[in-house]
Amino acid sequence: MQGLQDKYAPHSSCFGCGPANPKGLRIQSIAPTDPANSIGPVVADWKPLPEHEAFPGMLNGGIIGSLLDCHSNWTAAWHLMKKAGETQPPCTVTAEYSIKLLRPTPTSGAVHLEAKVVESTADRATIEATLSAGGKVCATCRGVFVAVKPGHPAYHRW
To answer: Given this model, what pLDDT does residue 39 score?
Structure first.
């Protein structure tokens, strides 16, 4: 299944989600395909490498933040695109987000990201997301993501 990043921003160099960044995390956020379930959640599975660890066997908190930020941002962009009836997502940026680290995140297997829209207007979406490993939620995120307009440095970055 093709991720939102590959479909809509194949040349993005973002560290967290850019398909064109060979040293980045390169997450692939997968949107629901069932029209009856078009509001979410958006999911991703990602496998950490040893260089992503804070200490042996445990994922670095900054990497967790990047994963949740990028995945939530793409959830917002996808939602705003669908809400507006467009065929391309607006370029969205993080206005604010907070992460709660609930427990150490093991790197022995894939981590699972899940995000959903909890509130939105025409140009912004509030997203709640989780990062799980081994079937346990290890971190949560809540953030606001805004579609930018011409003149913003991120406009047309995709």
So the answer is: 64
